[in-house]
Amino acid sequence: MKVLLVNTSERRGGAAVACNRLMRALNKLDGVEANMLVRDRDTADPHVFSVNTSCYNRLLNYGRFCWERLKIFLCNGFSRKTLFAVSTAATGINISTHQKLQEADIIHLHWINQGMLSLKGIRELLKSGKPIVWTMHDMWPCTAICHYSWECMNFYEECGKCPFLNSDRQNDLSNQVWKNKCYIKTSNIHLVTVSSWLAEQTRMSSLTKNLKVTVIPNVIDTSIFRPQEKMTIRRKYSFPIDKKIVLMGAVCLDNSIKGFQFLNEALNMLSQKRNDLLLFLFGTIKNKDLLLKNLRVPYVSFGLLNDNRQIAELYAIADVTVVPSYYETFGQTIIEAMACGCPVVSFNNSGQTDIIDHKVNGYLAEYKNPDDLANGIQWVLDNEDSPILSYACIKKVFENYTEEIIVQKYYSLYNQLLNAKE
């Protein structure tokens, strides 16, 4: 069986990480060859292939991408705030003639926006007649243009009057893309969502409600994300051993969807009762002074970390990890922390509810309630010395998210689709 995984980037972003892990896991199976086709290749991995093979192609694709963004910029009233919250897939790269795609038995799409595949390009893939699996790492496949819909539910019926475009017109850019995207309704694409919550949203969408949907979470590398002795690592890096370390991490910490303000409020409340809190942050912060100006507990910011072993050590030394996002389609940082034995506090609203069992291996706070987020942090700190809590975290990961479990789910799905084709 030959599987081709398609993603915009080889390594950048959560979808790329998940795609890479799945590719490596698939290649450990007898009789399976998995390769990855990307726009942006970062390593010399022999299983990864780039569609940008020349400087001319790279410049051409960059120009197309800039044109797509310019059109969005014009339609959203010149707002930079929402410029990358949406994608129209108006431009992309034709991969239908690529040798690896021609050889593949299964085409497996992941995150393909920002110039990788256009709507026209996806339609060309459908003409191949090959089974197509599409893992949804955000909401874009089931909406017209947005990656996260927030409170907007227009995609349940027909997109238009898009809040990301500041539009009050039904026939706006989102509605035009929705109409261009309607061919997906009758396609043979098999959707995979990484959480039950995302599956529910997909089944409510006017674009995808008739498609088959399977829930398969992301895989985690438990050889890296594993329990380690907390105080040993703290002494190794001269971190204080008398502090309660609260950890938050994201690619971009000041992305509004990550909800840092809720953690800020929760920590400020707790600081009135205790003086032993220390906040650790990893991820980029574009304006640190603005994000952290009201924080009343000491903090250490490590910036963007690309070494998973360093990240795993941070989880291992933390007393609690907090994920205060408005939405999590899955919650990669949640299972990474739990695999290291670190309990997680998050809201009770989206993908994280598949992972966290309330007051068993973590705490699910009332949605957008910083008071209850503070309660959750306090609950974990009150129970952190119990080996049962840490064990429950590790147990949940090893029973649901290991490489062996997830790869077998995908392998079964691939076989199911290939047998149906025959």
Task: Tag the structure with descriptive keywords.
globular, 422 residues, alpha/beta, 7-stranded parallel beta sheet, 6-stranded parallel beta sheet
Largest sheet: 7 strands, parallel
Uncertain runs: none
CA-atom Rg in angstroms: 22 Å
- Portion of residues in beta strands equals 15-25%
User: What is the average of the pLDDT values?
Assistant: 92
Offer a concise description of the structure.
The chain is an alpha/beta fold and 422 residues long. The chain has 14 helices and 13 strands.
Describe the fold and architecture.
The chain is of the alpha/beta class. The chain is built from 14 helices and 13 strands. The protein has helices at residues 14-26, 55-75, 99-103, 119-126, 173-181, 196-204, 230-236, 260-271, 288-292, 308-317, 332-339, 370-383, 387-400, 403-421; strands at residues 2-9, 33-40, 48-50, 106-109, 132-136, 190-193, 213-215, 244-252, 277-284, 299-301, 320-323, 344-347, 362-365. The strands form two sheets. Strands 3-2-1-4-5-6-7 form a seven-stranded parallel sheet, sandwiched between helices. Strands 10-9-8-11-12-13 form a six-stranded parallel sheet, sandwiched between helices. Helix 1 packs across helix 14 (403-421), helix 8 (260-271) crosses helix 12 and helix 11 (332-339) crosses helix 13 (387-400). The longest helix has 21 residues, at 55-75. The chain is globular, with a radius of gyration of 22 Å. The mean pLDDT is 92.
